[in-house]
Every structure is written in structure tokens, then in C-alpha cells.
Amino acid sequence: MPPLTISGSSILSRTVKRALEVLRPPPELTISDWADQNRRLSSEASAEPGQWRTSRAEYQRGIMEAISDAGVESVVIMSSSQVGKTEMLNNSVAYHIDQDPAPIMVVMPTERDAETWSKDRFSPMARDTPCLTGKIADPKSRDGNNKILHKRFPGGHLTIVGANAPSGLASRPIRLLMCDEVDRYPFSAGAEGDPVNLAKKRTVTFWNRKIVLVSTPTNRGASRIEAAYEESDQRQYHVPCPECGEPQVLVWGQVKWDKTAGGAHRPDTAKYHCIHCNAAWADEARWTAIGKGHWQARAPFDGIAGFHLNEIYSPWVRLEAMAKAFLSARAGGDDTMKTFINTSLGETWVESGEAPDWQRLLDRKEEWKSGTVPANALFMTAGADVQKDRIEVDVWAWGRGLESWLIDHIVIEGGPGSEACWNGLTELLGRTWQHGNGSQMTIARLAIDTGYETPAVYGWARKVGFGQVAPVKGVEGFNRASPVSGPTFVDATIAGKRLRRGARLWTVAVSTFKSETYRFLRLERPTPEELAGGTDYPPGTLHLPGWIDSEWLKQLVAEQLVTVRNKRGFVRLEWQKLRERNEALDCRVYSRAAAWILGADRWSDKQWDELERQVAAPDAEVGKGNVTTPRQSRPARQRRSVRSNYMR
After folding, report:
1. Per-residue pLDDT reduced to its tens digit, 112-134
2. What is the number of domains present in the chain?
3. Do 112 and 176 reside in the same domain of the chain?
């Protein structure tokens, strides 16, 4: 039998066919269609492993279709947690790897977050989604195509960076930019500026670019995602009532539950009540109704599609759990309530900045011996405000829970041009105040403002040593997670000579501590009868001595937080003076920053217990009354000329 042959025309036909297969455009699939057909959820990254179903959370369909839509340049998702926003981001990345290859960048708040997403989210998805198999190199291969933060695939690549790494943000041109948790990004990527704007510059060469910003919001006026959402068409998800059929946006005010005859809350009875007919929806009815909802914009579309969601929409959250979280947050005060507002309701937290009436503070004065430190105080800090003709210093004592007492108000005449003025400030570092246990207490840390006559402040701080003195620079904005950052080395001019890295500067988000001060001033205090019965003051209580005058009180409440709208119509929060002099408020902020620098906000209960033990019995326990503040880690060697031990 002659050998089987294939004609040249047949070979050519098959070659052309293969070439045409390569050139064939991808099928007309949206991201949600692709995910329903191909995406597999991994067991280590999902509570519901297996085939992806967009219908499980129907609101996700409209968001992913907007990312797929060529007419939408940017997509903004401002939402709570537990709504699947990270999985929508994952689907978008996987879709483009499989169907529409392009240079992709995923930006996380930090490089550590970037590595975590790559290892715990992307890698399991790439492994368990069959259509991605073979398109991304084996992580064990040595060809360099599959690194933790950079992965290549046919037609494109995936770069994963942290917003705190300016070199990563500026490295490559990008067509698809995915920014997750943008409200957790630093204010600046090094010295390069805003990391979101820096990343956006990578997309300018692509006519078909896509920018996706995702985050739970933070503070009103300081939230990136809120500002981006207000620039969008502001879509909300409308859900029809199972009873009357009227569509509505789901809001927390319509979640209601019963109480017992004694007034105790029963979160297990929580239901959603229709805003039109008051019909009560159990969880199952709520989830069914959400599956029939639709997105509706509140503003004209101009290339940016914006979506807002709260946890009430989530098919993975029961209202009983939300009600319990709300009651717990309300009992915990502003800090826990802020977390609920941000992460459960997907809304910005509005800082409380109403100035307390200074005359009402007169009634809160307390009498203790002048020049002495109350027994419950455990350490002291000071805040110094440099003025043209003087330096004003307030000394505050601090106890557990950041309870505080104003110990002294000192005015050193002369100003920064006077050597005698600086000598007086130096002497203050060694001054002692009698503690309630009989020991002598000194200032543990003094924070001094560098906004006026900066070289003189740096020169004095360098002379006395940075162990007991912290030069600070106030910046606007709220940062409750880390209101103080640093220290950073800055150049200093000493006696006309410029010294590189000559001073250590701390940066303080003053808005955070001003809001905290006003919140502490408004705390309800126990009655005399309750105090006699053993009731403690609430954490954060701010105690004012009887010797302080009305001018100082007016300065303490001299500013108010107001909402300012810019020319484009966007709002931000800004502290504005109600009167010219506000030194008492500034000194309080600097003194509070000094307590943060010492680590008081991060000390464990064990560390507080040890500090209380030392203060309670200084002579018997630690000899001559010397007490040291708990330390988080071994301190760096520092040049010092004044003792920082503050119990003598």
C-alpha cells in the first residue's frame, strides 16, 4: 500500500485556519457572563467554593458589565465589606487574561497587601479556573514569567504593586488599572504625590483604558472613594418590596427589631421594613427581593460609573448579625461606631467638630492642689507653641484610657530670638511636679511646633537631644489609624551651618486630635454620688484644674470643624478659627501627639499594669521613684543631655 500523503493545498488550508483562529476576535462576553461560564472559586479563598454564580449576588452583574462596557472609562465602587467587591476585581483581571489580553496593574495599599493578594487570591484563582491554565507560567518554573508581583501571559502582563512604592506605580504603561481599598493608600507615594493620580498617569497612552477604584470609605472630606463617587453618575441599587412592589434603596434606618418589656434589645427579631408600606422582610425575603433589583443613577453620566452598596444587600450577612454589631458599636463609642459606619454601611464617618461652650467648661473645673499631679496619673507630656514674642507650654498628665489632667500652663517670654527663652524651655525639661504618691514627676516627652522659626526650633531640639523632645509639624486631614508618622530626618540650620539630616521631625494629623479633644470634652461624667460609690470616669475624660482662667478655656475651644464646598461642588472638612488666639488647643494637640509618640495608644494592659505598679510604690519597688514608660521595641541610640525618666 502506498504511503498516505496530504496535498499541499490541504496543508495550506489548515495553516490558514489556524492563523484565522489566532486572529478571531474574542466572543462578545461581559465579565459576568465569562465568570458564570469559567470562574471557579477556590476553597482557601471562598466560603462557597465551586462554580461562580453572579445570581448569588445579582447587584454584582451591573458593576461587572460597567467594567466590560467600552463606553465607560472609569468605575468607582464605594461599598461596605462583605459584598464581594474583591471577587469582582478578581473576575475582571481573569477575564482580560483570558479574553482581552492587556497590560494590567493591580494596586493595593501596601506592598505586603500586594503580596498577600497575589498569593492568597490571584494564585488560587489562576490554578482552579481551567481556562487560565497554561496562560500563566508555572510558579515553580525558572523562566521569570511568573513572579509574585509580576506575571506574564500571551498578549499582556499583570503587575501588582503597593501604593506606598512610587517606583512600582511609575514603572510601566497600563491599560487596565485596578485600585483596591484606595482610602487606605498613603497621602503620598514617597515624594511623588498622590498614588492614585500617579497610577492613572500610566494609562494615558491607551484610548481604551479602564480605571477601577474600589474601597470602603473613611472620613468625610478625606475619603478618596467618596470624592471619586461624587464625580460619577452615583448609581444606587433599587430593590422592589415583596409586598407592594415599590422599588427603594436599602438604608439602615429601615432595619428594626423588638425590645423586651424591660427595654432590652432583641436583635434576633431584626427585619427590614419597606419604606412605602412598612412590610417586614425576613432575611430570605430580602435576599429574594435583591435578586430582582436594578441600578439607577442619580447624576448624569460623563464617562464615570459609580456604585454604592452597604451590607444590607449582602447575601452573606443576616440582619441579626448587623443589629448586634450596631449595638456593640454604639456602646463602644465613636471609634467602634466609625468602624460600623464605614465597613457595614459603606458610608463616610463625619467627625464631630462642634466646639463646646467654654462657659459650660467652667462648671467642670476640679480642685486639686496647684503644682501637683493627681494619683491616677501615670506620666506627663507637654506641648509647646512657638510665638513671635513667647513660647507657651501646657503640661498634661495621662492615665489609663487616656484620661488626662492639665497640670501646668507656662509662658516663657522672649520668643525664639531670645537665648534666655530657650534656656527657660530647657530648664522646664528638668523641672519636677509632686505626684500624689509623694514622688517627683518630670515631663516624659515634649512636642514642639516647628511652624514658626523652624531653624531655631531644630537647633534647640538638637542641642537638648531628641530623647525627650519631639519637633512636630501639623498637617490637615484625618488619620485615626496613625495620626502621627515619623520620625523623618530633615536638614537643620545650626548657627548658620546647614546640617544634612540634622533633626528628627514628626508629622501630626492635627484634625484627628482636635476632634478627639472635643469628643472627650463632651463625655458624660459620673455624678458625685456615683463617684462616691466607686464609679470611674469614662476613658478619655479631660480634667481641668480650678486655677485655669476663662481666656485659656476660650482658647481650648477656639476652632470649629466646618464643611467647605469647593468650586467643583465637592465637600471637605476644615477646621476654622472662631477667635484669633487658640494656643491652648494647639498645645493640647502637641501634648497628645507626644503621648502617641511615647506609645500610650499601643501599650498593652500588661504594660499599663506595670506602669501603675511602679507609680503606686516607687520607693519600695524601683528605688527613688524612677519610672520608665513601657517600650514597644529597643530604642535607637540617641544623643541626649536631659534625663527623660519622669519619676524622681
Report:
1. 999 999 999 999 998 898 888 88
2. 2
3. yes
* Whole-angstrom distance, CA of residue 437 vs CA of residue 489: 39
CA dihedral 250, 256, 257, 260 (to 10 degrees): 170
Cross-strand pairs, 177: 105, 211
DSSP 165-185: -HHHHTSS--SEEEEESGGGS
Amino acid at 477: G
3 state SS for 63-89: HHHHHHCCCCCEEEEEECCCCCHHHHH
Same domain (yes/no): 97, 181: yes
pTM over 0.70: no
Q: Which domain holds residue 111?
A: 31-342
Q: The domain spanning residue 431 has which CATH number?
A: 3.30.420
Residues written for the chain: 648
Query: Which residues, including other chains, have CB under 8 Å from residue 630's CB and lie 6 or more apart?
Result: 599, 603, 604, 607, 608, 610, 611
Our separate counts of H helices and E strands in the chain read 21, 29
Is 542:591 a contact under the CB 8 Å cutoff?
A: no
Residues 331 and 425 in one domain: no
- From the list 225, 274, 266, 226, the residue with the least C-alpha distance to 249 is 274
User: Do residues 188 and 300 share a domain?
Assistant: yes
In a domain, 288, yes or no: yes
pLDDT at 320: 96
Considering the domain architecture, whether residues 189 and 42 belong to the same structural domain is answered as yes
Q: Please compute Rg for the chain using Cα positions.
A: 30
Q: Mention every residue, 6+ apart, whose C-beta is less than 8 A from residue 449.
A: 384, 385, 386, 457, 472, 473, 474, 586, 590
